[in-house]
Every structure is written in C-alpha cells, then in structure tokens.
Write a structure and sequence with these properties.
5-stranded mixed β-sheet; two-stranded antiparallel sheet; 7 strands; alpha/beta; about 180 residues; 7 helices
Length: about 180
C-alpha cells in the first residue's frame, strides 16, 4: 500500500522519504530509579556551588565530605564513604550526590566556606538538601565516620529528603510545629 497524505498518493521519490508517524507513549505513573552520583573533588568554592545547583535541580541531596591532605582519619573515611555510595546505598530512597571538599586547598582556605557551614573539625560529613546545609545532621565524630553500619543508615536517611528541605518530621499546622503548641 502506498502512503497517502490528504487522500493523495505520493510520487515514488517521496515514497522513499516518507516515514509514518511514530506513536509515543508517556509514562506518568512510574518514576525512574535514581542513581547515586559521585562528583570530582572540590578545590574551589565555585565547584561546590555548581554541585549544589546540580543536586538541587535533580532533587537529590548532596553529601559533602570535608577532608584535608594531612588527616589520617580522612584517608580511612573517604574510601569507605565512596564505596558505600558507589555500591548503591541510598538509591532505593531517592539517590544522593557525593563530593569531597578538600579543605586545605588554597582557594577553599581563603574563602569563608568553613565558617559558612560551621566546619569545626576534619573530617566532617555534611548534607545539603535543596541547596541548604543540614547542620543538624552533620557528622564530625571519627568513630561514627569509620562505622560502616552507621554510615549506611545516615546515607539512607539523607537520601529520603530528595528536595523536602529539613530533617524534622514537621507537625500539625502551616509552620510544621515550629512554635510548638498554641494551646
């Protein structure tokens, strides 16, 4: 059967160029599975801000591991955290992004990033959700950072945020129970 457009047969030259329309389906009920993303090490403040924007736009929390080159604990914690994220911990909950912030890099040291995000010890694990630092769930204890089970649970908890901002469960009312009871 020859292709027709508006009831007319097409000439032989046009027949070879004609392609029937493709039926496209759209899926609204099923969400794609999120995958974890590992970014390059941050040595400049602009890199961190770029990763925060990428994380916010994809609605996945950004986990930052603040390290230095001279920190022995960092050399133990960094491969552990990277291996957990690479193995898919947190993907079922929505996925996470991970970047290592090299706190002793010249551009990072001269900026105010450490002060802005209250980095008081190294190593520090700090999550960002929708561009906001989640200082209430920040981890600075070296023993916890070396505990694989603790890190798995922490990453899963952070991955559940996916753009929800904040760690609280909220509460009744428009302000989520921020001011307590009005009774």
């Amino acid at each position: 059967m020859s292709p027709r457009i508006a009831g007319k047969l097409l000439p032989p030259v046009v027949k070879s160029l004609y392609q029937p329309p493709i039926a496209r389906t759209f899926f609204l009920s099923r969400r794609l599975r999120a995958s974890n993303q590992i970014y390059n090490a941050v040595r400049r403040p602009d890199d961190l801000h770029t990763y925060q924007l990428l994380s916010s736009s994809s609605r996945t929390p950004l986990i930052t591991l603040w390290t230095t080159s001279w920190c022995a604990t960092c050399h133990v914690v960094t491969p552990l955290v990277k291996s957990l994220v690479e193995s898919g911990v947190g993907e079922a909950e929505g996925g996470v992004g991970l970047c290592e912030v090299q706190f002793d890099a010249p551009d990072i040291m001269t900026s105010s990033l450490g002060m802005d995000y209250m980095i008081t010890s190294i190593p520090t694990l700090l999550s960002f959700d929708a561009g906001e630092a989640q200082v209430l769930t920040k981890v600075t204890d070296g023993r916890k950072l070396a505990d694989r089970h603790f890190l798995e649970e922490w990453i899963r908890t952070e991955a559940k945020r996916h753009g929800g901002r904040g760690s609280g469960g909220g509460g009744p009312g428009i302000l989520g129970g921020l001011f307590g009871s009005w009774k």
